Amino acid sequence: MPNITKNIDFNMEVDVLTSATVANVVNSILEFLLYQRNQIPFVYKTLKHYTQLWEDQSQDDEVTTVRQFNINRQRDLVKTTKDSISEMRQLIHTSFQNNIIKRLRFLFGTTTLTPREAYTIHIPTESIAIKHYYEHHQMSPAALNKALVNLVTTQELYDIFTHDLNTTNVYLELEMVDDINAINSSRMFRKTISQLPQSCKDIHFHLLHVSSANFENNSLKCCKELKIFEDSEILEVTEDCANTSNDTSLEQKQDQLEWYESEVIVRGLKDKTVHGMNMWRK
Ligand SMILES: [Zn+2]
What we know:
Largest sheet: 8 strands, mixed
CATH class: Alpha Beta
CATH topology: Cell Cycle, Spindle Assembly Checkpoint Protein, Chain A
Bound molecules: zinc ion
Number of domains: 1
């Protein structure tokens, strides 16, 4: 049986695309997948909220019953999963800060060699502007939500999402330019990319930059190198702003692209009740 391969476009509607915006989008897709593919019982934000709540409570709580002990044990598992998601998110952020990333993928399965589902995200490196500040060009939460809701209603994903996935491990692999300094400090190791098993569902998200209408005004106000362009014709300035990308650097470094695997693994979380007691409530 051949792999089931799906290609899905993911629009990033923002005036200027920065690497931090792409990292945010990737992290949102990670959260989306973890929840949609049954690896966490609530969305990540809610999970974070609960663990914070328990931390505050546990200050003045004494463990006096077996039941409370069991509940605490379950809550520790929740915290571990929450912490690993947070670590993976951080790793994605720093990777986009320090490296040129071409593709990355999330593997859902017992090992990286035996994934059940693989989600590869293709990064439009040529659209990423490097002379702009992220703070000035954030993708609005509404635009991000719209793109995520589009995913839910995509027929290709619907076919996959209607089949439940048991709790399993989620791995992160990144294809990026080999920058030893940046990679040494992170928790990643180089690997030879492995072929997906035939039974693995192979889903590809293609991130696309969609500029909004007011692009020109915004980009000119904050351009780091505005002074350099001051004497230029206005048309040239606009063009320069639109093309302040790192495509040439990736082109030069094409042969340095390597796959890396993250040491950070998210272990899916089963929502258990402990002796009929709901661990989510006190
Ligand atoms: Zn700017």
